[in-house]
Write a structure and sequence with these properties.
Layout (H helix, E strand, L loop, with lengths): L3 E6 L17 E2 L2 E2 H12 L4 E6 L1 H7 L6 E4 L4 H9 L6 E6 L7 H9 L5 E8 L4 E3 L2 E3 L5 E3 L3 E4 H8 L8 H7 L3 E6 L27 E13 L3 E3 L2 E3 L3 E3 L7 H13 L5 H4 L12 H14 L2 E11 L9 H12 L6 E6 L5 H4 L3 E12 L11
Parallel strand pairs: 1-4, 1-6, 4-5, 7-12, 17-18
Antiparallel strand pairs: 2-3, 6-11, 7-10, 7-11, 8-9, 13-16, 13-19, 14-15, 17-19
The structure holds magnesium ion.
Length: 378
């Protein structure tokens, strides 16, 4: 059994990375970047456990992808690492950043095989350029460029990070308690993905899969007298609306489920629970906007959507065009990619008895192609 836990840090806001998805959510083949990095590490070494540190909203989604341990990050790298270390019970811990996404197997094996009690193992690169300090050249032979991942004795690192001092890396924290720092040869491949320009250097990153993802949603609401009726964000002239915790826009709810379904993100209740006061009477257009924003951040593009509203009453023919244009605006799609169908239930069942309305929706998503950045129309 391995005596090492892997910690992958990825809670930063990545504000220097100017693409619609967050960098952790660039799709590499069939996997988001964070998962590719985590899986690549598992192929190099068997870890006792793997902890991924990220923001709370990302964790909710990440946990649908893999059974790693997910920990919420802090305000700084050091705080994020401290949060993760609480869950570590192995003698050693290997810490890396998700942004160091191209792994050099040999370098990681060198780091792991050099481990020693109370120490920290650090990969380093030699300086090949001439160096000046202020106005004077200095001997570059004594200079090392420090890289990650670094492997530390867990207890030493925990003790060191309990101080108020902000360390720039794990080795300086371990060294502050008198731990030994062991240097091994690093790798020129271990770049950090910080800006879009860095992507050109990351030859290990393959283009996203062109797989189309489909999702289905259904929602049902009963009528309630005296409430305004809203469908697809359009007010419908009707003596009753829908019984609901929110504004009762049953069409938008079905559509949100179709979108979340295509992305493998669960259902509307997981993101906007109808038990929460935050969503009491909420305008469902706001929920759809938030869903679209979420999909964009997680690297998805919407291909098209198609809805069928099953209603004995009210008559919807004259509203269909307005619904199409309203949803197109909310989804950032051209209106031809948003289809609205309306049908009756031929007077059968509860819909036929005019007790409520059902809506079915489907959607198609694609992965954002960061290699061309051309298909980002939404
Ligand atoms: Mg609903």
């Amino acid at each position: 059994m391995s005596d090492i836990t892997l910690i992958l840090l990825g809670a930063g806001s990545a504000s220097r990375f100017k693409l619609p998805p967050k960098k952790q959510w660039l799709w590499i083949g069939h996997e988001p970047l964070w998962l590719k990095v985590a899986n690549d590490f598992q192929n190099i070494n068997s870890f006792k456990s793997t902890i991924i540190v990220s923001s709370r909203s990302d964790i909710q989604t990440m946990s649908n992808f893999a059974e790693f341990t997910f920990v919420e990050g802090g305000d700084s790298r050091q705080q994020s690492l401290k949060n993760a270390l609480k869950d570590v019970n192995t003698p050693y811990v290997l810490v890396s950043d998700i942004a160091r996404c191209c792994l050099d197997d040999d370098m990681i094996k060198r780091v792991i095989s050099a481990k020693k009690n109370k120490s920290c193992v650090v990969p380093t690169l030699k300086m090949v350029d001439t160096l000046y300090l202020d106005e004077s050249p200095i001997n570059r032979d004594g200079v090392k460029i420090i890289q990650t991942p670094q492997l530390s004795c867990t207890q030493t690192l925990k003790n060191a990070l309990n101080s108020n001092h902000e360390f720039t890396d794990d080795s300086s924290a371990v060294a502050s308690l008198g731990g030994e720092v062991i240097f091994v040869e690093g790798s020129a491949k271990a770049h950090k993905l910080t800006t879009v320009e860095d992507l050109a250097k990351m030859t290990c990153l393959k283009a996203p899969s062109k797989r189309a993802l489909s999702g289905f949603g259904i929602d049902i609401h009963a009528f309630e007298e005296g409430k305004p009726m809203v469908l697809c964000g359009i007010e419908i002239d009707s003596p009753f609306g829908f019984k609901a915790h929110s504004d009762g826009d049953v069409a938008i709810h079905a559509l949100i489920d179709a979108l979340l379904g295509a992305a493998g993100l669960g259902d509307i209740g997981e993101f906007y629970p109808d038990t929460s006061e935050d969503y009491k009477g909420v305008d469902s257009k706001e929920l759809l906007k938030d869903t679209v924003k979420r999909l964009k951040a997680f690297g998805y593009l919407i291909g098209n959507v198609d809805l069928t509203i099953i209603a004995q009453t009210p008559k919807l023919l004259t509203y269909k065009k307005a619904m199409r244009f309203q949803l197109a605006k909310l989804l950032n799609l051209t209106p031809n990619l948003v289809n609205i169908k309306a049908t009756t239930a031929e007077k059968l069942g509860w819909i036929g008895r005019k007790e409520g309305v059902a809506v079915e929706a489907i959607s198609t998503l694609y992965y954002y192609d960061w290699t061309t950045n051309e298909n980002y129309h939404n």
